[in-house]
Amino acid sequence: MEMEKTTDPTSFHGAYRMTPATFDELLALVGPHIVKQTTNFRDPVGVSERLGITLRYLATDMSQRDVARHFCVGRATVCKIIQEVCQAIWEVGAPLFMAKPTTEDWKKIAEEFNNQWNFPHCLGAVDGKHIHIQKPALSGSLYFNYKRTFSTILMGVADAAYRFIYLDVGSYGREHDGSVFAQSTFGKALEDGTLLLPQSPNGDLPYVFVGDEAFPLKPQLMRPYPGKNLSDKKKIFNYRLSRARRVVENAFGIMVSKWRILRQPIIAKPEKVDKIVKAIGVLHNFMREKEGLEVECDVGSESGMTDVQIRLGANMYSGAAWDIRENFANHFSSPQGSLPYQNDIVQRGLNI
């Protein structure tokens, strides 16, 4: 059984969130890994239909039961197909579209951040979001978050072009950004020095990641200055950091705009949710490469995902981290590092 493609590209794109040509590229990539052998009892669901079932579920508000009715297959079959296809998308696509950066890759990412968002030596923007789910059985309060809903946490690091460099999903909803980041493989690799990060020729301005106030200040992770009555220098730093940090917010917004299953609680066990979200992350990067940024995507809108709670004590820092943030703040207020419009924006209290 194979999926019949509509002759109307607009209708096809509305149903599967990609053009027929892009669908065929994705099918060629994952098809060999999701094919099923014919049995003596019945013909299996064809590879194109298996991919179509999965994309239709991820891209729309349809439940698995509705998808099963639409494709005229059993609900249990749909559930199994979605998990197998999502696993294949992650295993095949992650090494191609979310590969671990080399030292040269990091330098290119930093150059893009400086050119597009005016933050030198920035390697990525970090943030975490709640992925809302149904209450897992016998889970107690592990997935119960501060919004009084149930969720698992998605931690992402995005580059300057809204692509995800790294994704980690599966932490309990009751946790906060700082602890999720510290426990993630990315956070551990950052602490261990195993990310192959480049060395800055300017010791005062090392290569760093940027995050919001939910993250701790570290030598390789910059966060805003806290408080309201800040000096102009600190306000300018916060503005410049905000310009770079919003990239990851926009990346989440683009992802939710296209893959609308993220707009509502996902009805699946946590381990199955993890596979779904990781596959969506790969599809996000795949689509950014193949079709770019679409006009329909509401950049910056992440309806369906909420911010992770800020923990008390997140503003703790070392002296080295404080010095690095001060160096960036001084640079942004200097003739060499300032933007011609930043003082006006700060004085008007905009975008801080």
UniProtKB/TrEMBL annotation:
<keyword id="KW-0479">Metal-binding</keyword>
<dbReference type="InterPro" id="IPR027806">
    <property type="entry name" value="HARBI1_dom"/>
</dbReference>
<protein>
    <submittedName>
        <fullName>Protein ALP1-like</fullName>
    </submittedName>
</protein>
<dbReference type="GO" id="GO:0016787">
    <property type="term" value="F:hydrolase activity"/>
</dbReference>
<dbReference type="GO" id="GO:0046872">
    <property type="term" value="F:metal ion binding"/>
</dbReference>
<keyword id="KW-0540">Nuclease</keyword>
<dbReference type="InterPro" id="IPR045249">
    <property type="entry name" value="HARBI1-like"/>
</dbReference>
<dbReference type="GO" id="GO:0005634">
    <property type="term" value="C:nucleus"/>
</dbReference>
<keyword id="KW-0378">Hydrolase</keyword>
<comment type="similarity">
    <text>Belongs to the HARBI1 family.</text>
</comment>
<keyword id="KW-0539">Nucleus</keyword>
<dbReference type="GO" id="GO:0004518">
    <property type="term" value="F:nuclease activity"/>
</dbReference>
<feature type="domain" description="DDE Tnp4">
    <location>
        <begin position="126"/>
        <end position="285"/>
    </location>
</feature>
<dbReference type="Pfam" id="PF13359">
    <property type="entry name" value="DDE_Tnp_4"/>
</dbReference>
